[in-house]
Structures are given as structure tokens and as C-alpha cells.
Specification:
Number of helices: 13
Number of strands: 13
Shape: elongated
CATH topology of one domain: Rossmann fold
Protein name: Exodeoxyribonuclease 7 large subunit
Enzyme class: hydrolase
CATH superfamily of one domain: Succinyl-CoA synthetase domains
EC number: 3.1.11.6
CATH class of one domain: Alpha Beta
Order of helices and strands: HEEEHEEHEHEHEHEHEHHHHHEEEH
Radius of gyration: 63 Å
Strand order of the largest sheet: 1-2-3-5-4
Strand content: 15-25%
Subcellular location: Cytoplasm
Largest sheet: 5 strands, mixed, barrel
Main location: cytoplasm
Distance between the termini: 179 Å
Helix content: 40-55%
């Protein structure tokens, strides 16, 4: 910047409340001061482009903030500039400040303007792409599947655009009952990113919207820069509703394509990927029904054959005949069992009789029945010696039928005992 040293310039010390300077002199001082700046190259985005009488009056916005300047391009200069300059373009311009003393207006005259080098832009985009990829925003694992048949499709696109017509036409051809919630936004320029983000937030908050399509009918890389904006890309990554990117054609790939849950090559492709084809689904249902009918017919036929085979067996053909034969066998086995049981009973009955006879022969009762008796004292000791029953002792005598008591008169002499023995033997 050249230092300002005009001799007639007004300085703060040259004026006071008693000796004020004039507005004209102040404006002339400002004009001369600004004129000393010379020309500068500035980078920004065109936000206004109005043609009046061959000249262009517009505004240039800072890329990273809200600062703006007004500029003008005279017709002679415009003839040397690219013919495709328009709102939304990222440009560099050579400007020189002009100050009009009469109105106190500041503007910038443009002597040169061109598109910002695409290589520089692509380099910045690739750096951002690498950063987002490192954060995992492009990972396939975080991408959500699209619903098979969305109840409502959210559509973000330009108003009355070909992209909107393509999406509606192709979706309705495939599924006539499909419903849309459409939000119209600017698809290029400085309004593109904020309007698209606002539409995305509104559709993402709508509980009826099952999938969101962001569509634009392609364009040159300059016009697609808004869809590589980091703010928009991060908003799409944070959305809870699946998002389909349908921005450009095959050769166009803004960052939105990488972060979206599905990338469609065109709006038409997006409609085909989001909405199923009713005719294809009907054909598929028909095929499944045919296969199911065939499988069921085959299974039923197989089961009928198995049933007929079982019914043809003798046991099922004449169940009573088999039972009759088995009944005779059962009766025979029962008779044999009864005979064997009876024989066993007879054998054991005879054995019991023999044992009973043996027991009776050995039983003291049989001996008593023949006239013998058992003498025992009151303490239960059986008397086997006459000395055990001294004279005057009481003795219990057990015979075949009962027990009675006797009083001993002493031992009988042996002769008498011998005579008794003889009588017993008789």
C-alpha cells in the first residue's frame, strides 16, 4: 500500500468544533487515500450478478465467512472475461477500490476475473475426503440399509427441476402408490448448503419419512461444490434416516456420494434403487406361488403314495384276521398256563400233606394223644426224674386235652415202676 501524503488532505488535527472541515473535503481525502491502495487480487464466491446496460453489478462473498464486497464490471472489461461467469462460481478477481465523493459510496472495479483453479479446489476436496475417511464417515459398516418399500420418500431438489420430474416419474411408474415429501432448495450458490441442511433436518425429523433422496441433475464440478461442503457432509452422516445421493452423473463424485448410505448415478437411478418395481414384485410373487404349489403337490402326492403303501399291508388290509389268529394263540397260551399252574399246585399240595404228616408224627401232641403226659413244675421245668417231685410238691400235668394239677406223694419204688413199665409195653 502506498502511503497517503496529499497536501490538501484533511487530518484530525486540522479540524475542531470551532474550525470544522467540509464534507466534500473529507470525502475527497477518503477518495485520495483509497486510490493509493492500488489493485489487489481477491478470492471469493459470486453471490449476485446483475447485468444493467452492458455492465455487471454484483457481490463477492468470502468463502469461510459472511464478509462481502460490491463490485462492478464495465462492458469493456466484461468482453475480456469468461462468458460463463455466474452466481455460485468460485473466482479470483483483480479489484481496485473506488470511492465516490458525492454519495460517499465505496465499490470495487473489476479489471480481471476468472474461475478459481479447479486443481486447487480438487486438492482441497481430496484433503477433506482423506480427513473424513480417516474419521470413518465413509465406512460401509455405518451405512444403513434402505427399506424394502418406503411409506414416504423425502426428496430434496431444485424447484421445477428435471431431477424432481425424473424421480417422481420413475418412482410412480414402478410403484404408483408411492408418496413424496419434497423440499425445494437452491442446488448451487451460497444458498445451496444452508437450505439443503435445513431441508435434511426437517425430513429427518419427520417420523413418516423412511428414506431421503438428495437429487440434482449433474453439472460441472464448479456447480457441484456445495455438495462437498463439510457442513452438509457431516449433517448427512449424522442423519438417522437413510440418505441417497443422486447429485451427478457417473463422472461427478462430490463428497456427499461417499458419506450417503447409497450413491445413485442419476435421479432416475435413485428412483429405481429406492422404490421396488410392482410388476417385478408381482412376477416374483407368482414365481413363489408356483414353486410353493409345486412343492405342496409333490409332497402331498408322496404322502398319498406312502399312505397307500401302508394301507396295502396285510395288517392294515384285514386287521380283524390278524387279531383272530392272535386270539387263538392267546387262548392256547392261557390254557397251557392254567395247566402248568394246576400241576404246580397239585405237586405242592402233596408236598404240604407229606410235611404235615411228618410234622404230626413228630409233634408232642401226637404223643400225648396216645396216652402220654408231660409233668412240669410251676416254674415250667419239665420233670424227668422222680427226685424232682418230692412228696408234697404240686405238679402240673399236661395231657392231650388240657392240663391239671396233682400233689406228689413221693417216689414210687422201682418194683412198682417195673410193673408199670410192663403194663405200658402191654
Amino acid at each position: 500500500m502506498t502511503s497517503f501524503q496529499a497536501a490538501d488532505a484533511v487530518r484530525p488535527r486540522d479540524s475542531s468544533a470551532e474550525t470544522p472541515t467540509s464534507v466534500a473535503r473529507l470525502n475527497e481525502t477518503i477518495r485520495d487515500f483509497i486510490a493509493s491502495w492500488g489493485s489487489v487480487w481477491v478470492e471469493g464466491e459470486i453471490t449476485a450478478w446483475n447485468v444493467r446496460g452492458g455492465a455487471v453489478f454484483g457481490r463477492l462473498k468470502d468463502l469461510s465467512g459472511d464478509a462481502q464486497i460490491s463490485f462492478r464490471i464495465w462492458s469493456s472489461t466484461r468482453a475480456r472475461l469468461p462468458a460463463d461467469l455466474k452466481v455460485g462460481d468460485h473466482v479470483v478477481a483483480c479489484v481496485k477500490a473506488d470511492y465516490y465523493p458525492k454519495g460517499g459510496d465505496l465499490s470495487f472495479g473489476v479489471s480481471a476475473m476468472r474461475h478459481m483453479g479447479l486443481g486447487d479446489q480438487l486438492e482441497r476436496l481430496e484433503r477433506l475426503r482423506a480427513t473424513l475417511r480417516a474419521e470413518g464417515l465413509f465406512d460401509a459398516a455405518r451405512k444403513r440399509p434402505l427399506p424394502f418399500l418406503p411409506h414416504v420418500v423425502g426428496l430434496i431438489t431444485g424447484e421445477r427441476s428435471d431431477a424432481e420430474k425424473d424421480v417422481h416419474r420413475n418412482a410412480e411408474l414402478r410403484w404408483p402408490q408411492v408418496r413424496f415429501r419434497t423440499r425445494h432448495v437452491a442446488v448451487q450458490g451460497d444458498r445451496c448448503v444452508p437450505e439443503t441442511m435445513a431441508a435434511l433436518a426437517a425430513l429427518d425429523a419427520d417420523p413418516e419419512v423412511d428414506v431421503i433422496i438428495i437429487a440434482r441433475g449433474g453439472g460441472d464440478p464448479q456447480t457441484l461444490l456445495g455438495f462437498s461442503d463439510e457442513r452438509l457432509v457431516r449433517a448427512v452422516a449424522a442423519a438417522t434416516t437413510p440418505v441417497v445421493s443422486a447429485i451427478g452423473h457417473e463422472n461427478d463424485r462430490p463428497l456427499l456420494d461417499d458419506v450417503a448410505d447409497l450413491r445413485a448415478s442419476t435421479p432416475t437411478d435413485a428412483a429405481k434403487r429406492v422404490v421396488p418395481d410392482v410388476s417385478e414384485q408381482r412376477a416374483l410373487v407368482g414365481q413363489l406361488r408356483s414353486r410353493l404349489t409345486s412343492r405342496l403337490t409333490q409332497r402331498i402326492g408322496h404322502d398319498i403314495a406312502q399312505l397307500e403303501q401302508l394301507r396295502s399291508r396285510p395288517v392294515l388290509r384285514d386287521p380283524a384276521g390278524m387279531l383272530a389268529g392272535r386270539a387263538h394263540d392267546v387262548e392256547l397260551q392261557v390254557a397251557r398256563g392254567r395247566d402248568r399252574v394246576q400241576r404246580g399246585i397239585d405237586v405242592h399240595a402233596r408236598r404240604i400233606a407229606e410235611l404235615r404228616a411228618t410234622l404230626r408224627a413228630l409233634s408232642p401232641a401226637a404223643t400225648l394223644a396216645r396216652g402220654y403226659a408231660i409233668a412240669h413244675r410251676d416254674d415250667g421245668v419239665i420233670i424227668r426224674d422222680a427226685a424232682q417231685a418230692p412228696s408234697g410238691s404240686t405238679i402240673a400235668v399236661t395231657v392231650a386235652r388240657g392240663t391239671f394239677r396233682v400233689r406228689s406223694e413221693g417216689e414210687i419204688p422201682e418194683a412198682s415202676s417195673a410193673d408199670m413199665s410192663d403194663r405200658e409195653r402191654i
